Sequence to fold (614 residues):
Amino acid sequence: MSEPNALTRPFVTPEGVDLELELAAASERMTAFLIDVVIITVAMVAFTLALLFVARLTGFRSAEAMVVLWVLGAFVLRCFYFVFFEQSARAATPGKRLLGLRVVMRDGSPLSLDAVFARNAMRELEIFVPILFMASQANQVQAAAEIAALVWCGVFVFFPVFNRDRLRIGDMVAGTWVVHAPKRVMEPDIASQSGGRAITFTREQLDVYGIKELAVLEEVLRKRDPDVMRAVAARIRAKIGYPDGDPDEAFLLAFYAALRKHLESRLLLGKRKRDKYDR
Amino acid sequence: MNEAPLTLKSHRFRMEREADWRRLEEILDLVETGKRRELTDSEIIALPVLYRSALSSLSMARAISLDQSLISYLSSLATRAYFCVYGTRMHLMHRIARFFARDWPATVFGLWRETAVAGALVLAGVLAGFLFTQASPDWFYSFLPDGMTQGREPGATTAYLRQTLFEQHGPSGLAFFASILFSHNAQIAILAFALGFACGLPTAYLLFENGLSLGALLAVYADHGLGVDFMGWILIHGVTELFAVILAGAAGFRLGWTLVFPGEETRAVALARAGRTAAVVMIGVVVMLFCAGLLEGIARQLITNTLARYGIAALTAVVWFGFFYAYRGGRRVGA
Fold:
């Protein structure tokens, strides 16, 4: 059970199981957006070059058709890149996919095309209008108005930072939010890896730690950094009064397996020992 | 305390269910990469069952297992499966058909109040632009930015103005013209919609301004006795284009109005509903503007008879009004 943090939201399926969705942080949203902008830019350049190439091959007789294609292509790319990817089965643009995010209706219903369109049409307000204002040349008289306009735009641009659910205006209008839905691979169970010489612990030694420490130990064992393992092993030995001698990794694996067995059997009896302070 | 670690109950639980999880994962991989069609019948039948078993595994694992990586794996698997099972949507073609047959006309009809207000604003803009420019031609330059007019100004000669209306174009260059007009107008319409979020005021301004420049131009042409011809030149595509712009404004007003007066529901819920309603209209607006771009870029340049232009304008008016306000196929009861 992951630590509940400020961005975890209950999301109960019709079967009654809470999926505990975790909202994407504003920084992740921004990163995903920048990746998408880069992709759009690269696609635009490639598209332009391809059209130029075709126009050149045909001796510029098809120049007009190419220009028409370019104008329509640019429009489609700018307005429908996000819509196209978000209405697909993954409900995420390539940028969001890279960060393991997806767009979800806040009420759990299927993501509809109109919602996707609504949330992306609002980008005009969030991105295009501010750029328009920044690009416009201000003279002395208009400076105050320009500053007021920038503040006004700022409200839209920084909207996600100022609400609990990290909603941008598009999310508000479409009833969506963006959550983590990463693809995870199943890692081997490290409790099954301890072997060889049996290392045993007493009940008192296992009573020292709780679930939180077990999770930290699991992380250490998955990373397998020798220095960290040595330090952690030394720490545990000192704490539970276990003599030195076994190799660090074997000791930690055995301790992990024993501790997990101990805590899990207590869990079955209804006692969830959160951490070492939980008595 | 010295039993082999393999006897961990949570480990046995994992060993027994692992095959099902892997199978579900394979199906999800196929669906998420858009290869839904490659699923066999037995896989399609298995999907909901595997989904439910993954959910129960997740609940179980949370209760009995302290293997963090297993719990996060199951949680990710169950989440992916949920969206796969409950996110299933209609086929795209089916959705498009339903959009045109039902959703779009019904939604536009439901937005008639906002549409009337937006239309009145444009009309007021036209009137104001016309009257001000007629009273004093200097106003013209306040309504239309320099460089946009291409010499269609109060001081221009009648012959020149006539030529701008009836200039014959060959077919070359028209598609280019149409595509530019379409993408520009669509961008403006989407902006007008998005600005609705700012309580609708910038949307109102955009609509009124649009009317102003039209009215100012009309005054210039009317001054030379070309008013009727000018309206033909505008309306052949303008019926479609102005209607689309008005609908975009109406969609924006719906947003702004709901933001300020959410009614019985919470603001968030009301806004989400209004946003999706408005989005349906906006998808249609893009389609309308595409038609308008074709009419303006191609039909107007090829048809130079004022009467024929009015004919086409009337035809488009009948089509759009009939589709939105008289066609009952899609209208939900009480909508």
About this structure: Chain B has two domains: 5-88, 93-326. Chain B has twelve helices and no strands. Residues 267-302 of chain B form the longest helix (36 residues). Chain B touches chain A through 84 residues (CB under 8 Å).
